[in-house]
Amino acid sequence: MIRSLLLAAGIAATAPVALSQTVAITGGRIVTNTDQGVLETGTVIIRDGRIQAVGAVAPPQGATVIDARGKWVTPGLFAAFSHLGLSEINSEDPTNDVSASGSDFQVSLRAADSFNPDNTAIAVTRIEGFTRAAIAGFPGKGLLGGFGAIIDTSGRLGSVTAKDVFMIAQLGETGAGAAGGSRAAAWQWLTAAIDDARAYPRGFEDDAEGELLSRREALALKPVVEGRIPLMIEVHGANDILRTLALRQYEPRLKLILLGATEGWRVAQEIADARVPVIVNPLTNLPGQFDMLASTLENAGRLEKAGVTVAIADPAQATHNTRLIQQLAGNAVANGMSWEGAFRAITSVPAALYGQRDLGVLRQGAIGDVVIWDGDPLELMSSPDAVYISGAPTDMVSRQTKLRDRYISLDEPRPQAYER
Amino acid sequence: MRRSYLMPLMALLASACATASGDAGKSVPEPAAAAPATAGTPATARTDVRRVSYDRDPYPSTYKPLPPDNVLIRNATIYDGLGGEIRNGAILIQDGKVQAVGPQATINAPAGVRVIDAAGKFVTPGIIDIHSHLGVYPSPGLSAHQDGNEISGPVTADVWAEHAIWPSDPGFTRAMAGGVTTLQILPGSANLFGGRGVIVKNVPARTAQGMKFPGAPYTLKMACGENPKRVYGYGGGQSPGGAPYSRMGNIAGYRNAWQRATEYKRRWDKYNADFDAWEETMSLSSTSEEPSEPGDPPSAPDRDLELDTLMGVLNGEILVQHHCYRADEMAQVIDLAKEFGYRVSAFHHAVEAYKIADMLAANGVCGALWADWWGFKAEAYDGIRENIPLVHKAPGGCAIVHSDDANGIQRLNQEAAKALADGLKAGVSISRAEAWTWLSRNPAKALGILDRTGTLEPGKAADVVIWGGDPFSVYTRADIVFVDGAIAWNRNEPSRRPVVDFELGQPGEGDAK
User: Edge-to-edge, what's the strand order for the sheet holding B344-349?
Assistant: First the structure.
């Protein structure tokens, strides 16, 4: 008895699951991201951390009933790419684990090992409606930057949903630079790494090392070349995208995700035919580099029309302003993408990219990540009223809201430091 | 650290330069002083002697408005930029100016004026971005085009942003599509005194002079905090690299420069006063019945281009735009300005402005702010989403939405929308029409051009945007952008969507951007 209580307490301390708690959110406009589509009004029931029912159902007895009339009810937002929990202050190296240029290890680095659930950006992101995020570093040297993970935004210790679900890499201008100065060098670098991973372990017997990778690094790349986890490659130019797709001729088992795909619209049909999903920043419309000359605000919409699976994120605003992904999606709609496509691009599509099919959707059995919004979740002036992670309500407080509340009135008798 | 983190840091600077009583290169005769008002040509006039002074506008604007589009826009919801909203409003644009604005029943189309039906659309003053590095940090980000920070020394008040503007930066046309009609282009924030900023009209041109806002004042970029320390104190792979190494060094660097400027100004003021007296003496000697020897004219001080700029600030001719994040540092700078007798026009970035919103208002300093950037460095750690509305809320507060970013400049209306929403949720009462003051009136005020643009009032420049819908919605884009009463941008008319030289012959040329 005592032991089982302790056990339960132990679980509660580390897991966001609110056991045996039932919540019924009633009367809201429900975006399911399933074949049910959008329900103009209905009820979402969450029990034991999972969605129990969605639709015209009555709240069970004993459920906590939340009146959401006039509100929108959606799955929690899912950041398709971020560095959340990897950097407290970007310019302060000791607080920034995004990349490790001084390490001999790159391929084998695991973002989950760096993830800091106390990072203040997590609550800042959560209160804007994000419940999950893919996190990854970037290569500190070479083309491969290690494993990405999925985290939830509860901020609890141990809030890693899944480790090692994809590998991050860079090609194009950035990759060329990292490989020694040219795209041709990058191609040799990456294919040599693939060869080493394929050769592991036999090629590493008798203290032999790989052509490029050390033993540990080759081992790390093994699940990628065997197609067990996707390889996410940041690439922007149309020609570079085609070369990247051609990697599958070199190693057919590779599963690819394109990150950036800024000129993707120029080769949209090829990307669609290859069934390779993309993660785009719909607001990239400047030729920041020569591999982005044809960037346009219409990229996301054009890719969608060609049948490409599109997720939305911005790798350049991925530590503290991951929350702006919501605004990116709204702008994708303003420039030709469907609302449904844009919303899925920040919920169910990224969840599915990483095999998390119980996230990003509101259907029976899905994980109870639910957000109640005061309006269209893609609108600039909308914001969440409540955020549930695995069925548990979260507090809508961040370090930023505390600073706001402290300074909203300045004419007080005591210094602000007395106010909490 | 990725490049994207570094860019905002590198990009932050700006300012200064000056036009003191003397400016640039050539010494020119003082036209007014040549003939004293007292009498006719002095008998013993030494006509070879001229007061030494310098052209204050040696790189003058050659801006010419585009051919005018005379239109009456009807059926619009109008935010006038003064904080007012007119439903079913009309605005008459003729000969480059706003001729009339008000309820549409009160305004008719004169002959020859095209009528634009703007049912369901919104009309606002053009957006003014008070903090841009377009042209000096252009796209693409080539190493050859990193022209925004003169990091050869912490005090470079003698450099001018306009001398580095690349008019072919595609960012200008993107900003135009976002409704930006005027912008201030600043040097970066690597330096304590970064140099002079320049105010430009957002029109395509072959030269920087072709964009310069006629008659706008010069500005001086200064910078607080981490950037000057990082670039100089820790720069060049050495630590210490040189001064400033600390925030103490920052303030000392400012004070040393302002002290030199004070003494420089004193020399010029004395020279001008002495010259006045000498002319007076000469004029008296020529009219007196007993001529006396007027003696030699006074000698002019040696010219110093750096101190010219700082003296321009002390003379109230050049407006200080000070990059500063932390509340405590802004308070130090306010005292610094009082110590040397000048005003700070606006603090830029000012991530902690909300902590001293009362102090900023009391000292008449605007806050030019992001809606939600934070955390990329220590001095940005305390950013909150309500910074803009809290600066607005202080009695007399002056909040400005700025970009400092080639992407952000394209959607400043969206930044205002986010700030407005966050303010409303925090209980700050702000109308949408009032929020538009953050985008046009307040930046115009902080740039000294409010008498010419920034609001929709008869007689002002017709810098006007027609939005496809509510400009505080994410789904709305600018349809038509007028600069000085001419359509500079029309979303639905490719011939009115300029393409810069750089993009000609490249993939995506002329595409919807």
Answer: B127-132, B180-185, B193-201, B218-223, B318-324, B344-349, B366-369, B399-401
